[in-house]
Structures are given as structure tokens and as C-alpha cells.
Write a structure and sequence with these properties.
With 164 residues, this protein is an alpha/beta fold. It is built from three helices and nine strands. It has helices spanning 58-80, 123-136, 138-142; strands at 10-13, 31-34, 41-43, 85-90, 93-98, 104-111, 113-117, 147-149, 152-155. A three-stranded antiparallel sheet has the order 1-2-3, with no helix packed on it. Helix 1 (58-80) packs across helix 2 (123-136). The longest helix is centred in the middle third of the chain and has 23 residues, at 58-80. The radius of gyration is 21 Å and the shape is elongated.
Length: 164
């Protein structure tokens, strides 16, 4: 079965200081992005490109998308493979390199998920499922650079039953 999914957003530049793009320093790199039924996402360029460091930028959003996609696939795979995850935190890191002309491209993204499961017998399977999650992630399959992961899995035992 072939299915097509579409995703619609609208982005509006909000950085006109009154002179438009009359020169390189005349405008802010700020924008708002919306999608029906969702909150507004305020963004800007990376601070290295004259953007607002307090707003999301496309580079951060790309790394976030990869991290989120991996998380969602990973949780699904754990659920159908009897791995009980009770905690997940990813400190993802993306690397983009500029050449002498100013052209840039991502060279890799490293996901560093820290996963907590409920039993030591789940650790090996929990660790192995990251590779399958990476293969299934739609976003990772769509980029032209490697998406690597360095996962760490720990066990959190349930609290002991109270004495009766």
C-alpha cells in the first residue's frame, strides 16, 4: 500500500525594521511559523548568521526533528518488543561545517539517548532497538548525512512492596 502524507506550515518574516532588505544589516532574521491548530513557533537565524539567540533556528529544529523522530520510533519498538521504558532523555548534537565561500552543510548528528528500563533483562534488547529506530525514522532516512547514536541504558527497579 502506497500512502502519501503531507505537512503544511506557513512562515512569515517578521524582521522588517522599516527598510526591508535595503542592506545586509538593515533587517532582523526573525520569522513566525504556524500550522493549523498548533501554537506559533517564533524563529530566527542562528546567532552566527545575525540571528536572535533566544529563538529557535532551522539548524536546531533539524536536530530536534531527528531526536524526536528517533524517540517516537524507539518507544514504539520497545512497546512491541516487551521492553518497558520508564525514562528517556536525549542530548543530541548536530555538526554543520562552512566552507571558504560561506556555503554550509550538516556533516552529522549524534543522538545520545539515556534510557531507563524496568528490568536488567531488557537492557540488551533496549540497546539494540536504537539501530532499528534509526533505520525507521523518516527524518533520518531523508537527510544526506549520518545520524549516529550513543545510547546508554540503565535500570530503575520498581519500589519494594510495602510490608504487611
Amino acid at each position: 500500500m502506497n500512502r502519501t502524507h503531507t505537512y503544511e506550515i506557513a512562515t512569515t518574516w517578521t524582521g522588517n525594521r522599516g527598510r526591508g532588505t535595503a542592506d545586509y544589516r538593515a533587517y532582523d532574521r526573525s520569522y513566525d511559523t504556524v500550522s493549523p491548530g498548533r501554537p506559533l513557533l517564533a524563529g530566527s537565524a542562528d546567532p552566527a548568521f545575525r540571528g536572535d539567540p533566544q529563538q529557535w533556528n532551522p539548524e536546531l529544529l533539524l536536530v530536534a526533528s531527528l531526536s524526536q523522530c528517533h524517540l517516537l520510533w524507539y518507544l514504539h519498538l520497545c512497546a512491541v518488543n516487551d521492553v518497558v521504558v520508564v525514562g528517556y532523555h536525549d542530548a543530541a548534537h548536530g555538526t554543520m561545517r562552512e566552507d571558504d565561500t560561506g556555503a554550509a552543510r550538516f556533516t552529522d548528528v549524534l543522538l545520545r539517548p539515556q534510557v531507563t528500563v524496568t528490568h536488567a533483562s531488557m537492557v540488551e534488547r533496549a540497546t539494540a532497538l536504537h539501530a532499528e529506530a534509526n533505520d525507521r525514522c523518516f527524518i533520518a532516512a531523508s537527510v544526506s548525512f549520518p545520524v549516529r547514536h550513543e545510547a546508554r541504558t540503565t535500570v530503575r527497579l520498581p519500589p519494594p512492596e510495602p510490608a504487611r
